[in-house]
Amino acid sequence: MKRRFGISLPEELVEKIDNLSRHLGISRSELIQDILMEAIEDRLHLLTHHTCRGILVVVSQRSDGERVSEVLEKYGECLITRTHHHAGKSCVDIGLVEGDSDTILRMENELRRLKGVGEKYLPFWCVR
Asked: Which residues contact 68 (CB under 8 A, 6 or more apart)?
């Protein structure tokens, strides 16, 4: 059973959704449902306390690299290894992460709050 509800989105975002759904050949509703399911699945496992392993990718402008490094160093106990690369005007940090799910969630949230910084945590092995 599906439930209908209304949300307000900026016009620019709606245009992007419409454009993407046309290119993928699916309805706007299907696209939004897929995107929401993926986002929820990515984060749901962090609500259950456990030890988690995964890969963290952070992309920032070179001018923001110091702020990213400060956050990553703050959570250094979770970073098994980290590499830093330059791609044009961007910095790319890739880290192998292992730690308490609550700590990883806090690190993700701090990185998300940094303007101009994109991050993605990809869990690949959770030990309960």
From this structure: 58, 60, 91, 93, 111, 114, 117
What is the rounded end-to-end Cα distance, in angstroms, of the chain?
33
- In this prediction, residues 53-60 reach a mean pLDDT of 94
pLDDT in tens, 9-52: 999 999 999 999 999 999 999 999 999 988 887 777 767 788 88
Angle at 30 between CA 28 and CA 35, to 5 degrees: 95
Which of the 8 DSSP states describes residue 116?
A: T
The residue ranges of every structural domain in the chain are 11-44, 49-127
Provide the CATH number for the domain formed by 49-127 in this structure. Answer: 3.30.70.1150
**Nearest in space to 69 (alpha carbons), one of 123, 9, 114:** 114
Please name which of 65, 74, 85 lies closest in space to residue 107, comparing C-alpha atoms: 74
User: How many Cα atoms within 13 Å fall on the side-chain side of residue 114?
Assistant: 23
